[in-house]
Amino acid sequence: MTTTDATAGAPSSHTGLSPQQVEQAIRRRAQELYEQRGKVAGHEVEDWLQAEAEVTAQRPRPAGRKRTVVVKVAGITYTGEYDSGLCGGYKPGALKAGQPVRVRFRDDKIFITRADGLELEARIIKQEAER
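The structure assignment produced for this chain is given below.
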């Protein structure tokens, strides 16, 4: 089991769209942000997290649905999926993009320590190393 510091990403919802459609929408918006910044490299994670926050904020979020949270740990971006009805009162948006958080890993799970000291447990569904 590892506990380390990480940077939080924004939660998202799959409501109304398939995970692939959500990712495509995020990818398009991140590309727009990159272009708006003058195509300056080195801000890929920030662009992605901002795009994810914008895209998912536009989607309705009913309770008890699968949602995702993104954290970056030591150059690796992890996407975790959790059930909004079983998350111990975690409110989407409580973890802000770029906010330092503590995390630990066990098997295919990531545990993110929230500001209230409780942990948000998510199943790791994707991990991507920095390029």
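Interim note for the steering committee: The two ends are 26 Å apart (CA to CA). The first helix runs from residue 19 to 36.
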